[in-house]
Design goal:
about 150 residues, alpha+beta, OB fold (Dihydrolipoamide Acetyltransferase, E2P), 2 domains, five-stranded mixed β-barrel, 1 helix, 5 strands
Length: about 150
């Protein structure tokens, strides 16, 4: 059986590491699900999502040098993202021959209030982005100083 990219398989979690899980597949093959491919949300501890011996459905996302890269999250429905609020700006005057827009049939309900988990995820994402930005600027400064000393 050829395991090509896009193939959907069922396997069993063989072992779990901090960076992913190894999955036993048919025909004595093994593949790995990286921690970033376990769920659509941020995963800090893979053991909260998977346990050894658990049956899982996976999709092959890579096959390099006989090493199978697998994903669980790509088989799940993607979470719906909230639409971005329109930003303020200039509005042009309506054209003289413009047709009027039809009235909306029903107003859309307001979005559900965010859970504590969603708020935490947003705060964590903002922190990680800010932290990465600061680290990269420090590295650039450090690299610049190191180069000037080598002369």
């Amino acid at each position: 059986m050829e395991l090509t990219v896009g193939a959907i398989l069922e396997g069993k979690v063989k072992s779990i590491t901090n960076f992913g899980a190894f999955i036993a597949l048919p025909e004595n093959k093994t593949g790995m699900v990286h921690i970033s491919e376990v769920a659509n949300a941020y995963v800090s501890d893979i053991r909260q999502h998977l346990t050894e011996g658990q049956d899982v459905k996976v999709v092959v996302i890579g096959n390099e040098n006989g090493k199978l890269n697998l994903s669980i999250k790509r088989l799940e429905a993607k979470p719906v993202r909230e639409a971005a609020a329109p930003r303020g700006g200039f509005r042009s005057a309506p054209a003289q021959n413009a047709q009027p827009r039809p009235a909306r049939s029903a107003p859309t309900p307001p979005p559900a209030p965010k859970t504590a988990d969603q708020l935490f995820e947003e705060k964590l994402k903002a922190f990680m982005s800010e932290s990465d930005s600061k680290i990269s600027s420090i590295r650039q400064y450090s690299d610049h100083r190191t180069k000037s000393r080598k002369r």
